[in-house]
Specification:
Rossmann fold, alpha/beta, 264 residues
Length: 264
């Protein structure tokens, strides 16, 4: 017998950073190497509602590093991921969007957070428009990893009170980090992938993606989710950029946060 009544149950993660997602409405745009793992971590952290956006169809080659199983092949990523997170929590409300992003700007503006894992310049332009809306209450976050190994992580955060748009956060962070010789290992996050570093896994994929194992990508996604949870828990954490490195990446700087713009 499992008694999970709120009045007699204390969540074992309540004091952890991911507690910031408890009861929140979360949009996840892009359900691939990072987004598929982030969705599971957010679901386990107690989010009340998740909206999933990714029309890409799952093929067998993606199972090496994305959060899917053999039975998901042939389904869209958003559809398969919705089934997975609802199997984890039957009280979780999940919406699946047919396209790459929701059609309704109102739904986006009312979410507690939008997590963009698409690595798409076109999506960034949409987020810039959203960020400029005066009625926005959503935190806007963008995540990425390096193309060569999948052991570095990038998290840009744009809080509702910040005057900066997501593209500006990324540009300012890139200028500052690329100018710092001590952060040379992270410079590649703002560079185009070299020959052989980029990987296009399936025909029709327009955005070059990355190498890396499931262990690499799940680890990067987990760290970025925890860092993002801190922004969700604190109204005084400013906009800015986190860069992280997994232990086996051989980098002496595992985490750096560059604050930019106003507080949340």
């Amino acid at each position: 017998m499992s008694d999970e009544r709120n009045e007699v149950t204390t969540r074992r993660d309540q004091s952890r950073p991911v507690g910031g997602f408890l009861g929140k409405s979360v949009h996840i745009w892009g359900c691939g190497g990072l987004g598929s793992w982030i969705a599971e971590f957010v679901a386990r952290a107690g989010a009340a509602h998740i909206t999933l956006c990714d029309p890409g169809v799952i093929s067998g080659g993606l199972l090496v590093r994305q959060n899917y199983a053999e039975g998901d092949i042939g389904h869209t990523k958003a559809e398969a991921l919705a089934v997975r997170v609802q199997n984890i929590r039957d009280d979780l409300s999940v919406d699946v969007v047919a396209g790459a992003i929701p059609e309704s700007f109102t739904d986006c503006l009312e979410a507690d957070i939008i997590i963009d894992a698409t690595v798409s310049n076109a999506i960034t332009q949409v987020l810039d428009v959203l960020a400029a809306q005066p009625e926005r209450k959503s935190i806007i976050a963008q995540v990425a990893t390096d193309a060569a190994t999948g052991t570095l992580g990038l998290l840009n955060v744009c809080t509702p009170s910040s005057s900066l748009q997501p593209s500006a956060v990324d540009e300012l962070a890139g200028l500052a980090i690329n100018a710092d010789a001590d952060l040379e290992a992270f410079h590649k996050l703002w560079q185009e992938p070299g020959d052989g570093a980029e990987l296009i896994p399936t025909r029709g994929c327009s955005v070059p993606t990355f190498h890396g194992s499931a262990a690499d990508l799940a680890s990067v996604a987990a760290v970025l989710t925890s860092l993002l949870g801190k922004h969700m828990k604190s109204e005084t954490t400013p906009s800015g950029t986190h860069i992280i490195s997994l232990p086996h990446a051989g980098n002496s700087r595992p985490h750096v946060f560059l604050p930019l713009g106003g507080a949340a």
